[in-house]
Amino acid sequence: xxxxxxxxxxxxxxxxxxxxxxxxxxxxxxxxxxxxxxxxxxxxxxxxxxxxxxxxxxxxxxxxxxxxxxxxxxxxxxxxxxxxxxxxxxxxxxxxxxxxxxxxxxxxxxxxxxxxxxxxxxxxxxxxxxxxxxxxxxxxxxxxxxxxxxxxxxxxxxxxxxxxxxxxxxxxxxxxxxxxxxxxxxxxxxxxxxxxxxxxxxxxxxxxxxxxxxxxxxxxxxxxxxxxxxxxxxxxxxxxxxxxxxxxxxxxxxxxxxxxxxxxxxxxxxxxxxxxxxxxxxxxxxxxxxxxxxxxxxxxxxxxxxxxxxxxxxxxxxxxxxxxxxxxxxxxxxxxx
Length: 337
Known about the structure:
- The structure is a single chain.
- By secondary structure, this protein is mainly α.
- It has helices at residues 2-7, 29-35, 39-48, 64-70, 74-81, 85-93, 102-107, 121-138, 154-161, 163-195, 204-229, 241-272, 279-310, 325-336, and strands at residues 16-20, 23-27.
- Strands 1-2 form a two-stranded antiparallel sheet.
- It is a peripheral membrane protein.
- It comes from Acacia crassicarpa.
């Protein structure tokens, strides 16, 4: 339906006027579709009118590459890369009216969040640095040191605009590490105290689970302690180093918690299993204590699982596309007529 409506719209070379931020910007339907992440519409327009790939904003002088990067539309940018290589080479070299290259626009802090991620300063910062690195790999090497009309390089813009977000992430990491260190210390102390008792009388399962709980709790404690005592995390650290450390500490803590519960079940089953009357008691303990691990898994693991996967992604997710983007696109196109 989206593509069919686009085909029936006089989208080129009609112009529409969009007021935003106090500046008038003259745009085409291709750039409107790219801004709103309508990949099918972008593909249809480029297939029907290939020359439209060189459209640019009349005042801002931004082409489709600039718009896709500024609006964090990775899928649109990938679609442009699939076109003729010479078009991509020309478009990526262009500067906007303020002398910004594509890397300058990628360095600016986005007002959006990525689609499919939870809210959180750490994930937002990871997405920001991932976007910057993603665009940097596609651009000429001299872009990183090229100043705009204000004399700012992309690296300077990234540092200045993300300073508050970096500080928020640093405080969040410190608070998170402090909480986990307290919990890991309790598990470590419990496992350590049990290891001095006659653990062999409860069976092999109990002995192994206590040892595993102690080792994983120590791993979690040392990991979070290393993060807590480290200096302020540099922006590049949010790309892979910090997320992987947080994942290691969290998974280790979860493993120590589960091992501790397994040792508790093993001790109960070893002493009480021969007596039939205690079987309901064992089942009740399992039913009551199992949700402790399950609640932790479902509330914490999705966050760290996303951090782990994003650490190895080369193409970042596009920003969240608002539900009314498609209707807004056709409304703007009708206004152009």
